[in-house]
Amino acid sequence: MKFKSQKVAYWFFAACMLLLTLQLTYGFIMAFAHMGLDGLHDYIPFNAARATHTNLLVVWLLTGFMGATHFIIPEEADRELYSVPLAYLQLVSLLVVGVVAIIGFHFNWWEGRKFLEIPRPLDYLVVVNVLLFIYNIGMTVWNGKRFTTTGIVLFMGLFSAALLYLPGMIYFTNQTFDSYFRWWVVHLWVEGVWELIMGAILAYLLIKLTGVDREVIEKWLYVIVGLTFLSGILGTGHHYYYIGTPRYWLWIGGLFSALEPLAFLGMALFAVAMYRRSGRQHPNKISLYWTVGCAIMAFVGAGFLGFAHTLPQVNLYTHGTLVTAMHGHLAFWGAYAMIVLAIITYSMPLMTGRKLWNNMPGLLAFWTSNIGMVGMTGAFAVAGIAQVYLERKLGLDFMVVQKEIEVHFFGLTLAATLFSVGITLFIYNFIKHGLPRDEMVGDQSLDADWVEPHQKESVAAAPAPEKSTPKTGKKAKA
Amino acid sequence: MLSKSQARTFFLVGTLLFSLLFLFLTVDSVRQVPAQTRAKNITPAVARGKHLWDANNCMGCHTLLGEGAYYAPELTKVYERRGAAWMDVFLKDPQAMFPGQRKMVKYKFSDQDRQDLIAFFKWIGEMDLNGFPPRPSRDLNAGLPAQVTPPAPPSTRADAPAPRPTTQPSSQAAARVAAAPAMPVKFQQLCVACHMLGGKGGRVGPALDGVGKKYNVASLRKWLEDPQGVKPGTAMPKLPFTAQELDQMVAFLLAQK
Predict the structure, then answer these.
(1) Helices in A189-321 by DSSP H: which ranges?
(2) Verdict on whether the full-model pTM lies above 0.80
(3) Which residues of A touch B134 (CB under 8 A)?
(4) Which of A68, A116, A474, B148 gets the highest tally of CB atoms within 10 A of its CB?
């Protein structure tokens, strides 16, 4: 950690962990309701659980992006954050708005539009909050000693995300217009500007972890975000097939959606190539796992599974079924949850000085959560495909079909339990790191390359854990 | 090989170009949508219904135009499928219509609210959605009257002769129906949601084939007027029939021998 104000990131990440825990709880409530175990119906009806689950996801990811920004931007701009109190004020107010909204959901108070359920009066507070954040980061970048592509792309992503929130606040009586402009927020966030944020964090991590030249990585960052917009903007058309919009969206949306996996494929190939070219032995292996894993899972979940059901001929049948939930879960996990967890695993040792990398809980957290999420995706896929055939193809009644596919939600619950074990281990590691320490400011030792144990007297770093020793033969020689 | 400044140009030019193209298409869509969605039919009642749809986050369980959550039925064509009368009874007490099944919140909708919601769904059902929802390629429920017969407006319904199902059930079923009194409109709208007749309908209550052999006029009438009085704790709801509808219903049921 180079600057004292980077410590702010810790509190954003801590908030992330709290919100993520709550999100999983609501996920379980819904999975049980799908199995017919809806004992909480009178207190938390399905629509409240659903709105809470998705809004917590959005809020914790945004909190994670903000935390990442507070860690990355001072380093990229080579100066302290413009204002630390402002950053804390912004975090606290974001959480207050989020909590008020979620409590409101339980009392039937909302805007009632998928993903934008936060009640309209609170929308204005969200705008004020995000303006505070943009101002603080903008001033840091503006007064910075250097401008890097990574920093600029990150800032542009955040700024455009804030701007694109506005079309979602307009009220339309016509359901089609309502939907049309709602997707300007939702689609252009997750398949547009959030990919700038993700790409920038990915580039930052790869620069740090692989030691590949910044110029090379940032060049590919431009190519990837270029591909994202080239396909993603008109790819919005895949939401405009069947909502009362002109027919030309069928082929425009279909064509450009088919190109959307390219950006994710580029990202995955890029991350793996950079990892291969790595001239470094960065000691924080677990962070590299999350970084490269993120790029790969984003391709599978967002790219491949997205492509699988955005062809108009397929989407006619899968639109509005559990197939969407299948794609949604792996896409958000791969593309956005994993990048936030990657930057957390990278930055925590630097802020706290505790080297909890490559330990057993950390590795188990990575593998169990990923296997669990793939299992959940599988359960949703089977349930969704069965629903498509029974309901859409054979014309059976909705409720009859739901009874038939209840069993897959039992499978989903099992996979989700595995996933939750992984997340619990991740949070356990997070807590074990302790609080950020001022002594870590300016301490570069934790960022140094990992070295063979027999060379370590020349380096200030503490010995690396035994388990990560790659070649036992060399150790024996020493 | 591509240089960094070339990569930046690719990003900037591409983004600008496709943003402009998207804005152009949006302008065109905004021009075309009102005609395609029959926006001239958006009455104040429809607008109020849309507001109720949002205010209660109906999308948190249902889908509409295929958008929402996947816990409760798709409602784009619900007006065509169920009809106004069924929806009105259902919205008063959703759980009474599907006892023991997946629950819907019992909202305190006023008479006006329910009519507004029904108007909203009627308007939604009339949109041109480029072929959504798809027609099942092998409709196992084909011939189920409630799914294919658009209901007549409520004011004329009570007096008008009951319309016959527009699709033809199997030939035996058709012969049986032809011999019996015409199926009352209310039967198509309400009863088949839970009961089967001729192999078509819901599975909540018992099938009604042969019901006329087991019961007489008095017992059927008493049952329909006060289900709880006859059998306390039954899942059968007390349905809002007028005296005339009740007569038609009893006559129709008696003919099911």
Answers:
(1) 194-210, 214-235, 248-277, 285-298, 305-308, 312-318
(2) yes
(3) 316-317, 392
(4) A68
Which of residues 131 through 150 in chain A touch B, CB cutoff 8 A? 149
- The model's confidence at residue A412, banded by pLDDT at 50, 70 and 90, is very high
B98 chain-A contacts, CB cut-off 8 A: 399
pLDDT in tens, A263-292: 999 999 999 999 988 878 888 999 999 999
Judge whether A105 and A74 are in contact, CB under 8 Å. Answer: no
Reduce the secondary structure of B23-37 to three states and give it as a string: HHHHHHHHHHHHHHC
Name beta bridge partners: B200: B197
- A176-206 per-position pLDDT tens digit: 999 999 999 999 999 999 999 999 999 999 9
Q: Summarize pLDDT for B178-230 with one digit per residue, the tens.
A: 555 888 888 887 888 778 888 877 766 788 888 888 888 889 998 888 887 88
Residue of A nearest to B68 (CA): A114
- In sequence order, the 6+-apart residues with CB closer than 8 A to the CB of A144 are A76, A77, A78, A79, A151
Give the residue from chain B lying closest to A392, CA to CA.
B136
Q: Quote the CA–CA distance of A320 and A379 in Å, as a whole number.
A: 17
The answer to whether the CB atoms of A398 and B72 lie below 8 A apart is: yes
Average pLDDT estimate for A78-103: 96
